[in-house]
Amino acid sequence: MQASPLTIRPFEHRDVADVLRLMRGLAVFEGYIDKFCVTEADLVGHGLGANPRFGVLVAERGGRAVGIAVYYVIPWTYDLKPTLVVKELSSMKQHVPRALAPH
């Protein structure tokens, strides 16, 4: 059976619960869940307001969020050019392409 296609799209209000779930999953995997403080209100207030402090790209398959890339932009550094920093990259294990999965 072939899996439904993977779609990558910007974070929306409807994604808040899924993004938080995937962020928590990453915190468990990386061992900092005891220090994890992000709430749904934080995601909305800091990521979906008039001046977002970070962005999220959502990987969606079959209408379900299965991965995220949390990023922020540094407006400029030494070369006066913007820099994109990917802070978190998380995916549900069954949705990781075989070429990227550990063997």
Key phrases:
103 residues, alpha+beta, 4-stranded antiparallel β-sheet, 2 helices, 22% helix, 31% strand, globular, disordered C terminus
Distance between the amino and carboxyl termini: 22 Å
Calculate Rg over CA atoms.
15 Å
Shape: globular
The unreliable regions are 95-103
Strand order of the largest sheet: 1-2-3-4
Q: Number of helical segments?
A: 2
- Biggest sheet architecture: 4 strands, antiparallel
- Work out the number of β strands: 4
Instruction: Return the string of H and E elements.
Output: EHHEEE
- What is the average per-residue confidence, as pLDDT, rounded to a whole number? 87
**Which percent band covers the strand fraction?**
25-35%
Structural class: alpha+beta
Residue share in helices?
10-25%
Give a structural overview.
With 103 residues, the chain is an alpha+beta fold. The protein has helices at residues 16-30, 40-47; strands at residues 6-10, 55-61, 64-74, 83-91. It has two helices and four strands. The protein has a four-stranded antiparallel β-sheet, with helices on one face.
